[in-house]
Every structure is written in C-alpha cells, then in structure tokens.
Amino acid sequence: MAHWPTASPYAGLTARARRQRCAVPAPVSTSDVYYTLCYGPVMASRVVRARLDPASETALSLLMREGRNESDAVRTALVEAGRRRMQRSVLAEEVTRLAQDPRDRLERDAVMADMDAAGTDWPA
C-alpha cells in the first residue's frame, strides 16, 4: 500500500534546521530567506490550476474554514481522495480474489444455505 504523507517533513523546524537538513546554502539577504523558505526543497514539485464548479467551491470553503489556505486545502483534499481510492481499489482486489477462490465460494454457499434455512423458521 502506498504511503501518503500527512505533514511536511520540515514542519516545526526552524529556518536554520531546514537549511541544515536540506543542505541549502545560508541566505545572504531577506529575499534569499524568502526564496529559501517559499521555493526551497519543501515546495511542491508541481503547480495545478483548476476551474471550480459550485460543489468544489463549497468544499474548498469548508476546508479553508478549518484554517487552511487554498494550497493546503487542495493538497489535503487530493491526499484524502487518494487514500479513499487506494482503500477502494485494495478492497475491490480482495473481493475479486475471494470471488475466484473455490474454497471461499463453497464456504460462502454453505453460509448462505444455513441463513436461508434459518430464515424460514421466523414467523411471517
């Protein structure tokens, strides 16, 4: 199963600790500090643009009310959606595997037969 990051590995680190951890050279000016903190190795590797429909606007607003900015909200939504898709695909693979297993099929048929037999005894 894929590992989904929950937070930046640099969260909570000071600028100095980030530079040491990332091997980023020491900044010379305030613009270098800004560039290092905003566009350094912790910056996302890809920029995505999207036109939002009303449902997406509502969902983005909900995430932003939790204190996130737009970028954090979108990243959070993508990670959560990816996790759900991964869980569904793992579950679907397991269902397919079990459906093709003859021993599991026999056991399932036996359980269903028992349930059918027990179901007829109940009053109508």
Key features of this structure:
124 residues, mainly alpha, 5 helices, elongated
What features would you describe in this structure?
The chain is mainly α. The chain has helices spanning 15-22, 30-39, 54-65, 70-100, 102-119. The protein is elongated, with a radius of gyration of 25 Å. The mean pLDDT is 77.
User: How many helices?
Assistant: 5
Please give the number of β-strands: 0
Termini separation comes to 47 Å
User: Helix- and strand-based class?
Assistant: mainly alpha
* SSE ordering: HHHHH
The description of the largest β-sheet is: none
Helix content: 55-70%
**Parts with pLDDT < 50 across at least 5 consecutive residues:** none
Beta fraction: under 5%
Mean pLDDT across the residues is 77
Rg, alpha carbons: 25 Å
The shape is: elongated
Summarize the structure.
This protein has 124 residues and is mainly alpha-helical.
Describe the protein's topology.
Layout: H1 15-22, H2 30-39, H3 54-65, H4 70-100, H5 102-119
